[in-house]
Amino acid sequence: QAQLRESGGGLVQAGGSLTLSCADSGRGFNTSAMGWFRQAPGKDREFVATISWSGIFKFYGDSVKGRFTISRDNAKNTVSLQMGSLIPEDTAVYYCAADSVGTTHLRVSGPEYWGQGTQVTVSS
User: Fold this and answer.
1) Virtual CA dihedral for 115, 6, 104, 82, nearest 10 degrees?
2) CB 98 within 8 A of CB 29
3) Rounded to an integer, what is the distance from CA 38 to the centroid of its chain?
4) What angle do CA 28, 107, 80 make, to 5 degrees?
């Protein structure tokens, strides 16, 4: 069972960068797809990015393609989200996610496990 904890959120100016990290203290990290979702006030939760257990396959939401990069370190049981060229519309609570089935299940059906979220605020 995954136990996810995010870190790295905060306030950043538009055009800036921020890196989020997620540590999994549970079992099965090396065989789980990992990902990030976000939820802005008054909006539905939105898929941001996912990475396969091997790190080979990565998928991004349309709104973040070319600006965000997901990566993982299986030796440290961590997954990161590097966010660049931030815009105010990126303001949201960002959630780490894990799924033992794979990246498609994580994106389409929803992940099995969620972190508690970390706030990212982009000022204009």
Assistant:
1) 160
2) yes
3) 8
4) 60
Indicate the length of the chain as a whole number: 124
Strands 78-83 and 10-13, sheet pairing: unpaired
Q: Could you tell me the sign of the dihedral formed by the alpha carbons of 88, 10, 36, 112, in that order? A: negative
Q: What is the DSSP letter of 41?
A: T
**Can you say how many angstroms the Cα of residue 51 is from the centroid of all Cα atoms in its chain?**
9
Amino acid occupying residue 46: E
**Could you read off the pLDDT of 55-72 as tens digits, one per residue?**
999 999 999 999 999 999
- Condensed to tens digits (0 to 9), the pLDDT of residues 66-117 reads 999 999 999 999 999 999 999 999 999 999 999 999 999 999 998 999 999 9
pLDDT confidence tier of residue 26, bands split at 50, 70 and 90:
confident
| Average pLDDT, integer, range 39-46 | 96
User: Which of 109, 108, 106 lies closest to 35, judged by CA?
Assistant: 106
Give burial (CB, 10 Å; 0-12/13-18/19+) of 71: middle
